[in-house]
Amino acid sequence: MPRLVSHPDEVKIISRRFGQGAAEIDRYIELDGYKAAQAAIEKGPEWIIAEMKASGLRGRGGAGFPTGMKWSFVPKQSEKPKYVLVNGDESEPGTCKDHLIFLHDPHAVIEGTLIAGLAIGAKMGFIYLRGEYRYLLKIMEKAVADAYAKGFLGKNIFGSGIDFEVVTQTGAGAYEVGEESALMESLEGKRGVPRIKPPFPAVVGLYGGPTVINNAETIATAPHILLMGGEAYAKVGTERNGGTRLFGISGHVERPGVYELPMGFNLKRAIYEVAGGIPGGKKLKAVVPGGSSTPVLLPEEIDVGLDFDQMAKAGTMLGSGGVVVIDESVCMVEFALRTIKFYQHESCGWCIPCREGTDWLKKSITRLHAGGAVDKDIDNIRYLAENMMGRTFCPLGDAAAMPTIGFVKKFRHEFEEHLNGKGCPYEHQREAVLV
Ligand code: NAD
Questions:
Q1: Handedness of CA 11, 239, 251, 388 (dihedral sign)
Q2: By CB count within 10 A, which of 97, 132, 389, 422 is most buried?
C-alpha cells in the first residue's frame, strides 16, 4: 500500500485532504466538501463546463484528453439516458494514485461524479473499481450511503428538485477493463473486451447512452476546480497542461511514494530532490516515466518537464503518472521481459496482433535473455513490436509494443550481451552476490 509522503515542492490540491479523516462525511464537509456541488447546482451546466475548460485539466488516466471538451461533446438532447462512469480500474504497473483518493478522499470522487452528472444532464453515475481494490469498495460504499443519508444523492438532491443516483461496482481483476469500452462491456455484465471507436462513449456509451467516462483522479479534481476557479487552477501548471497531478515515484529512489506536483515539474528534480535520489550511491540507468506502457528514458534525457507536451517532445509519454526509477544493477533485457510478460498475461485475446504479438514477444525475449538468440533476433523483436503498433482494437497492443521498441532502441548493447549462448551477465552478478 503506498504510504503518505510529503515534500515542500508539492502543491496540494487533490491530495489536500489525504490523512485528514475526510472519508467521514462530516469531516469532508468541514473541509469544504460538497460546496462545489452546491455551486454547480446553483450556477448550472454551462458554468461548470466553462470552468472545466478554463482549468486546462487533461485526463489523468493517461491519455490527457481535455476534460471540459469531453464533457461538452455529450449531446444536450438524448433519447437514451446519459451516464457518468468513473474509471477506477487503475492497473498500469507503476501506478497507485487513484488508490489513495479512494482511501483518503472517497467523497471527492462522489462529488466529482455528481458535478459531471450535472454538467451533462445525467441522472446516474457508476464508480468502477479494479477487482484488486475490493477492500476499497467498502470505503466507497459507506461514503455513498452517507451521501444518500445527507440528501446529497438520490431524489431531490440538496433540495434542488434534481435526482442523481450513484452505484459502485468492482471488476474481477483484468487489466483490459481499464480500457474505457471494455470497462463498459464489463459493467454491462459481459466479457470485458474492447469496442470499436468511434463512436466514442460521449456519444454512444454505457447501455448505448451518451457517457462521460473519466479516470478517478480527473473526476475527483472537478470539485477543487469549481472551488478555486478554473483559471486559478490552470495557472498552477503549464500552458495547455493545467493544475497539478499525482505522480507515483517508485523503484530505486530513497523516498518512494505518491507526490502531488504542478504539471511541468522537472522529472530530474522529482527523482533526485522530491524522491531523494538513488539509494546506495548507485548510478541511474533508466526511467520509465508514465507507467509501464511509456517508452523508457536514459539518464541524459530526464531534464524534462512532466507534462503531456514536453514528454511527447522527449519521445515518450506522461501516461498514468507512474515514474519507475531503475538503477545500474538492473538487466534491461530482464526488465523488458517482465514488462512483456505482464502484457501477454493481460491481453484479452480479442484481436490477433495483440494476442499473438505479445506471446511471440514474450517467447523471443525469454529465449534471448537465456542466451538462446542470435544477432538478427534483436531486429526481429523490434520488427514484431513495430508491426503491432496501431493494429489492435485497443491501446493494449501499443502499450506492449512501445516500451519494447524503446528498450531495444536504447539498450541494444545489453540485448547483444546476451546473444550466442552467453545469457544474462546480471544473473552471474546476482549469483556471485548470493555465494
Ligand atoms: P484515447 O486517446 O483513445 O482517448 C482518451 C479519451 O478521450 C477517451 O475517453 C476517449 O473516449 C476520449 N476521446 C478521444 N477522442 C475523442 C473524440 N473525438 N470525441 C469524444 N471523445 C474522445 O486514449 P485511451 O485509449 O482512453 O487511453 C490510453 C491511455 O491510457 C494511455 O496513454 C495510457 O497511459 C493510459 N493507461 C492508463 C492506465 C491506468 O491504470 N491509469 C492503464 C493503462 C493505460
A1: positive
A2: 97
Closest CA to 367 of 333, 398, 335, 400: 333
| Distance, CA of 68 to CA of 119 (rounded, Å) | 10
Q: Give the C-alpha separation, 215 to 219, whole Å.
A: 6
What is 244-327's CATH topology? Answer: Ubiquitin-like (UB roll) (3.10.20)
How close is the Cα of 205 to the center of ligand 1, in Å? 14
Neighbours of 156 (CB within 10 A): 11
Neighbours of 406 (CB within 10 A): 23
Question: pLDDT tens digits for 113-169?
Answer: 999 999 999 999 999 999 999 999 999 999 999 999 999 999 999 999 999 999 999
Interface predicted TM-score (ipTM): 0.97
Other C-beta atoms within 10 Å of 54: how many? Answer: 17
Residues having CB closer than 6 A to ligand 1 are 59, 61-63, 65, 70, 73, 90-92, 95, 178-180, 200-202, 213, 291, 293, 317, 319-320, 395, 399
User: ω into residue 199 within 30 of 0, thus cis?
Assistant: yes
CA of 328 to the centre of ligand 1 (A): 33
Specify the fold of 332-434: de novo design (two linked rop proteins) (1.20.1440)
Is residue 126 within 8 Å of residue 169, measured between CB atoms?
Answer: yes
Whole-model pTM: value is 0.97
Helix (H, G, I), strand (E, B) or coil at 264: coil
Residue 322 is inside which H or E element, if any? strand 322-327
